[in-house]
Amino acid sequence: MTSQDNMSEEHLPEAAHGHGGGPVVSKDGYFADPGLPPHEHRRTDIDEKAARRAERQVAMWFLLSMLATVGFIASYVIFKPGPTHHVFIWPIGNVSPLNFALGVTLGISLFAIGAGAVHWARTLMSDEEHIAERHPIEATPEVREQVFADFRQGSKESGFGRRKLIRNTMIGAMAMVPLSAVVLFRDLGPLPEKKLDTTGWKAGMLLKNMNTGEPIQASDVQVGSLTFAMPADLSEDDEDFQERIAKDALMLVRLQPGDIKDKKSADWGYHGVLAFSKICTHVGCPISLYEQQTHHVLCPCHQSTFDLSDGARVIFGPAGHALPQLQIGVDNTGNLEALNGFTVPVGPGFWERSE
């Protein structure tokens, strides 16, 4: 007698018992397939009033998502960030109202879309079970046609085309959720507006030595030397020092008048003293390497090379355009001063760059 013969009825799976309580066993000794239980219709399948109520419930979830998205954007505008703007919320503790509001509204927005979709599927979409036999990977034309037919049938049974309230509110909720990301991307930083086109240099502003902080006399700049300068109104203690020095930094060089090849460059200087932007026009690195014999300056980041004797044009490397030149002169005490601001944007090129 085999172990199968010794198996008692109390150890048999419930599905293996027939209607009379005994096990249903085939002739070869294996349990017969009990099959699927009878399909039970949901209330929404047989009661149109219940179906309409479920439709309104799904629409309310999607409307809630839309309202939460509006709340997210409103919170971003209303609440201020920063360590000084905190409130106590039990049981979380001290939190930023901005972060709390953004998290709650965005969470509700996403949850409501998911809840609406789940409730729609559970109450209104078709829930009948269908057996699909396994088939070869390469489907026959008949199978492919059946797949498309099933898809069309499923679309019809879902009521997506017929239940316009659900469709329209779901589309509205899905369309509004990305607005949260748009608002976040918008505030990754302030729009540059014209800030990339302008610097702190103005007519009459003195040039100050970046190391000593003293005004620079024309006589202080010797032939073959390279001097770094900044506007006289700029100090390292200023809150916006880093932002301004990234655009306002200058390098001064003195050349013999006969060595200056570009006439405009010579006219914008003072007795051979020329002032150029210190910011490389490739990616904005500060230029600091100078060759006295060739009058070339080299950017240490990517080896862009500029000829200061020829209007600081690019002679090598990835930089796209020459270093901007600042027109300079002297005041009545011999201090170097700007006669104008930069006429072209300093630093790297950008797609909105105005020339």
Describe the structure in your own words.
This protein has 355 residues and is α+β, with helices and mostly antiparallel strands. It has three domains: 1-34, no CATH class; 50-132 and 139-186, Four Helix Bundle (Hemerythrin (Met), subunit A); 207-338, Rieske [2Fe-2S] iron-sulphur domain (Rieske Iron-sulfur Protein, 3-layer Sandwich), CATH 2.102.10.10. Helices cover 34% and strands 13% of the residues. Helix 3 packs antiparallel against helix 4, helix 3 runs parallel beside helix 6 and helix 4 (97-123) runs antiparallel to helix 6. The protein is elongated. GO terms for molecular function: 2 iron, 2 sulfur cluster binding; metal ion binding; monooxygenase activity; oxidoreductase activity, acting on paired donors, with incorporation or reduction of molecular oxygen. Pfam families: QcrA_N, Rieske.
